[in-house]
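Incident log, structure service

09:12 report received: a user says their structure output differs between two submissions of the same chain.
09:20 pulled the input from the user's history:
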Amino acid sequence: MRLKPALACTASILAASAAFVSGGTATAAVSGAPRLAQANVSDFLAGQLSGLTGRTTVLVHGTDLAAARQAVAATGMTKKGEYKGIGVVIANATKSQIAAVRTQSGVTYVEGGAQPIEFFQETSNTATRGAEAASTLTGADGSPLTGKGVSVAVIDSGVDPTHPYFKEADGSSAVVANLKALCEPLTETCSVQKVPSFVDTDTLSLGGHGTHVNGIVAGRPTTLSDGGKLQGAAPGAKLVSISTGAGIVILGADSALNWVLENHAAPCGAGVPASTCPPIKVTNNSYGPTGGGEFDPESATVKLQRALAAEGVVTVWAAGNDGGDGSTSLTNPPGQDPTGGILSVASFYDQDTGTRDGTVSDYSSRGLSSDASTWPDISAPGENITSSCRLYLAICATGLDPQNGPGPLDIGTFNTISGTSMAAPHIAGIVAQLFQAKPSATPADIERALKVSAYKYSDGAGYTSGPLGTTSYDKGYGLVDVVAAVAALG
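09:34 re-ran on a clean worker, output below:
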């Protein structure tokens, strides 16, 4: 029995995205002047504007990219970047310029870009039947169902690609693309840049979180020094790590999602074959603001994940670590998106035995009991999860069960941490397994298969009727069941 770690991960690493709520339509401020239609602003930006004396970063949404560009230029804002696929221009602006751009033709929404967000894991693959699926089922290519042929993009604090958990048989790393969202400290403007494959991007103040999450997704089969055996949910999938660092803001996370939208078909570049670097079919997102929030369909985050779904990429969100009792919604806002292939994941505790009749983790964020749109979609193991770490990294040091890897120098390279951050990457890896089983599946097909096949564990709130069976405000449709999901996928 492993010691249950302190829930440092659940206190400092919350699973929600930073979607923002429209602040209502404002009108012209000049008394007696004609009222001008004004685009809504996000709640975060509205709060900023009341005390803004300098400049801030905004996302100007247009009916199309040309309209957003024209509005930014017409108001004198300083353009910093673009999300071309969703018609958004990133700009640095004053309070008066923000007011002016809201009345420009073709502007549909103005969003704050400096919203702070925070980061939210050997029995777990037994509870999900993921290990059973890998050993007994095969994909469409005839090989074991390990996620082979799929890349998973992990948007997180970074990764140590040299960690032994990512070591392939030929000595290479399962991390096939190592990237970093570089953000200017004053304007929060970000760009995603490739870094050398051997560079550890997970060394900042919250370092370790991303390395741990990547291991849950696709750690290679490993025997620890004490004889314990570990592997990730999809030990044959490849990893694309996009580091946002420790001081993450929503602009950095959105920049990472935008990079996936533009590069998912060939994440290592056009000249690299898919056999070496497969297309990205799923992203994992274990970050967000504390306390959940309302779903905002106008946010760049939601527009990006919907564009990804339309291009065949599933988006997975951790549901959050704020607990709750159903009296209010505390789940991650973009995870509430009803679009097929966008998933919110609750944390399940298998009692360190692999049982499927465990419990909903106390910290796992609940939705509002009377509003099913806020409920998690599905549960996955998130409590007492052992994965890749380095003892010198802050998050890894919070675990209370450090383990040594297989090599003589692999001291403290694994540790045990809890949080919905650890539940979400189980689902991301399982999605890779499902795409290997049926490459033609759509994101909506994947979501449906996961929900209709989920195991109905009884702890917590009772199940009520939903569109695809029965669901609940604390655990969604139940515990993920990989073997049953493959059968449901057809």
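09:41 both user submissions now match this output. Likely a transient worker issue. Closing.
09:42 reviewer note: The two ends are 38 Å apart (CA to CA). Confidence is low (pLDDT under 50) at residues 1-35.
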